[in-house]
Write a structure and sequence with these properties.
Layout (H helix, E strand, L loop, with lengths): L4 E2 L15 H13 L5 E3 L11 H15 L5 E4 L5 H14 L3 E5 L8 H13 L5 E5 L1 H4 L5 H7 L5 E6 L4 H10 L5 E4 L5 H6 L4 E2 L9 H11 L3 H12 L2 H4 L7 H11 L17 H13 L12
Parallel strand pairs: 1-8, 2-3, 3-4, 4-5, 5-6, 6-7
Helix pairs in contact: 1-2, 2-3, 3-4, 4-6, 6-7, 9-10, 12-13
Length: 304
Amino acid sequence: MAFSGVIPPLITPFDNEGKIDEAFLRSHVDYLVEHGVHGVFCLGSVGEFAYLSDEEKLKVMEVVVEEVAGRVPVLVGVGHFSCKVSVDYVKAAERLGADGVVAILLPYFHLTDDMAYEYYVSLAGSTGLPVIIYNFPAVTGFDIKPETVARLAEVENITGIKDTVIDVQHTLKLLELVPRGFSVFPGSEITLQAAMEAGAKGMILGTSNITPKPSVELYEAYKSGDVAKARLLLPKVVSLLQLVSFTPIQYLPSVIKNAIKLTGRPINTGVRKPLPNLSAEQLEKLREKMVEIGLLEAGNTTGG
């Protein structure tokens, strides 16, 4: 199964005691689905998956699959240092009814493309579910070569990649080398236009948690072949990058949670340590940027 469209990587909300906030997670899933997204992806980077226990990961999988209730595909993050542990997560995702898995290979010892190839082939061999590769070199320090992805695309159930890079040539090379049915998803607004116009199948953007409407409208324009309309809509999506680019990358979950709260939705903005929360000054800067790009009215004092 090949996936397509706008597939937000979900935040993982916590309550005041630091536990999974199931009620908000359910309402957030409903909010996104009701606003037209084409799938959801839980336990990704903005979902703070690396800081959750196995029990918490299973809880997130269960809640998201149950709440979506078949309305759109559910992708589950299964990345880990160890292929064996990733396979355990895949089996849990299968059991709970996920539609596919997304795997980022985390580094401890230095990674090589041969190691990445073996990891993804082994993972795919453990399941009948579609497997999406996740490339995020700004976090892992390892950038999977397009040629390696093309080799992996020959495996029947390795069906796509989330390519979160700032080098648009990397994504364009992927699109040149992989089969037509292989789903390439840009994970950054920086590469979005070039990727979509070269044949990407959709987008997996953390900022879609804040407001999915601009991304959904953009995707539908591209899908219909109306490139002129898509180019008019692009600035609304690309402007969201301003919200996540004024702080170092480790602030990303906090930025997105605080932006959600500033729009008036009742989320606890806490993140799992050692990730940092926004300072008062950073929160004010976020509010100013949201006003600047039209997500908030001037004078809004919600949030924190």
